[in-house]
Specification:
Helices cover 36% and strands 11% of the residues. The protein has helices spanning 10-21, 68-74, 83-93, 104-108, 111-114, 134-146, 156-167, 183-193, 204-208, 242-252, 263-274; strands at residues 25-26, 35-37, 41-43, 46-48, 58-60, 124-125, 131-132, 214-216, 219-220, 231-233, 238-240, 285-287. A hairpin with a 3-residue loop joins strand 2 and strand 3. Helix 3 (83-93) crosses helix 7 (156-167) and helix 8 packs across helix 11. The two termini are 29 Å apart. Its EC number is 2.8.5.2. This is SoxAX cytochrome complex subunit A.
Length: 288
């Protein structure tokens, strides 16, 4: 993994950053916007700051940084392209697989009841003291209970299932545990958030704290909240997982990145999720 670069690369990094930020302009979030799904379900997109985010004046969902057309797309389930993945996830929930010949529904019943609030608490420390993302829990059920093969972390089946599961927590506040057994992971994630990576010497905070609201080329920098994940990215024409987005961010610093599902990304996921506590889970959002 490529971490902090030696001092002799600083001049190169500075030149790269200057080129990247050339023409950057300020484009603050639209604080007059209000996310109401189908005119019925209100989603909290602003929340007070606290000691977890001492460098922010207020927590903002990434939805507030999007253009009106993208915001309207997310506010209408019929127009939201992520709903196709949600429907596929609902089918997978009812599909029996593996040597046990069981489906998710056979054990967990109605997802609307049994999975309510699960996404809001992810990632979460399991019974063995290990921090797991929702994908870990899904694959554990598949291999240990269903006798089925694991799904690829950002594969179509997994992203459809996580999209479906996230919908069961839509409108519920992010509520990850960061104390007790979760504390060491949270601290690891916080350290990663402020660590500079790659030839460009950029950390998560470089973009999502110090430069929130700025435009880098066509990209409007938000606070990097993950309450809307998994998300449908228009540029990818598909569902993007949290760890896929992490990988892309680190890759953009011109560094070798961590693997999806790695301990490092799970710790980072916990810390970034905690930065959004008070915001609502958006189920499946739409982003550029």
């Amino acid at each position: 993994m490529q971490h902090l670069k030696p001092a002799k690369t600083l001049a190169l990094a500075s030149a790269c950053v200057a080129a990247l930020w050339s023409g950057a302009a300020l484009a603050d979030p639209d604080l007059s916007a209000d996310l109401m799904i189908d005119g019925e379900l209100h989603i909290v997109t602003r929340a007070p700051a606290d000691d977890i985010v001492p460098n922010l004046s207020e927590r903002y969902s990434g939805w507030l940084f999007r253009d009106p057309a993208t915001r309207d797309m997310q506010a209408d389930d019929f127009e939201n392209p992520a709903m196709l993945a949600v429907d596929q996830g609902a089918e997978l929930w009812e599909t029996a697989e593996g040597t046990a010949g069981q489906s998710c529904q056979d054990c967990h019943g109605d997802a609307e009841e049994s999975m309510a609030g699960v996404r809001a608490r992810m990632p979460h420390v399991n019974a063995d003291g290990e921090l797991w993302s929702m994908e870990n829990y899904v694959n554990n059920c598949r291999t240990e209970r269903m006798g089925a093969e694991e799904w690829r972390w950002s594969g179509g089946e997994m992203t459809s299932m996580t999209a479906f599961l996230s919908m069961q927590s839509r409108g519920m506040p992010v509520a990850v545990q960061i104390d007790g057994p979760a504390a060491p992971y949270w601290e690891q994630g916080r350290d990663m958030y402020y660590t500079r990576y790659g030839q460009l010497e950029l950390s998560c905070s470089s973009c999502h704290e110090e430069s929130t609201g700025m435009m880098i080329r066509a990209d409007h920098l938000s606070q990097g909240q993950i309450s809307g994940f998994p998300t449908y990215r228009l540029k990818n024409a598909g569902i993007v997982s949290i760890h896929n987005r992490f990988r892309g961010c680190i890759r953009d610093t011109r560094a070798e990145t961590f693997a999806e599902g790695s301990e490092e990304f799970r710790a980072l996921e916990l810390y970034v999720a905690s930065r959004g506590m008070g915001l609502d889970v958006e189920g499946v959002s739409v982003r550029p």
